[in-house]
Amino acid sequence: MTASSQMPTFAMPGVTRRGLFAGAAVLAAASTLSGRANAAPAALPLVGPPRFYPFKIGSFDALSISDGALVIEPLFPSVGLNADAKDFEALASDHYLDARRDLFHMNHLLLNTGKNLVLVDPGGTSALGPKMGALPANLRLAGVDPKDIDTVIITHAHPDHILAVTGPDGALAFPNAQYYISDAEWAFWSQEGPDLSGLHFPEDFKAYTIATAKAVFAAIHDRVHLVKGEAEIVPGVHAVPTPGHTPGHLSLIVSDGYETLFHTTDVVHHSVAAMAHPEWQPIFDQDAPLAVATRKKLLDRLATDRVLTMVYHFPFPGLGHVARRGEAYAWEPQNWVW
Question: Where are the alpha helices (DSSP H) in the chain?
Answer without folding.
Answer: 17-37, 85-95, 135-141, 159-162, 183-190, 203-220, 273-276, 288-305
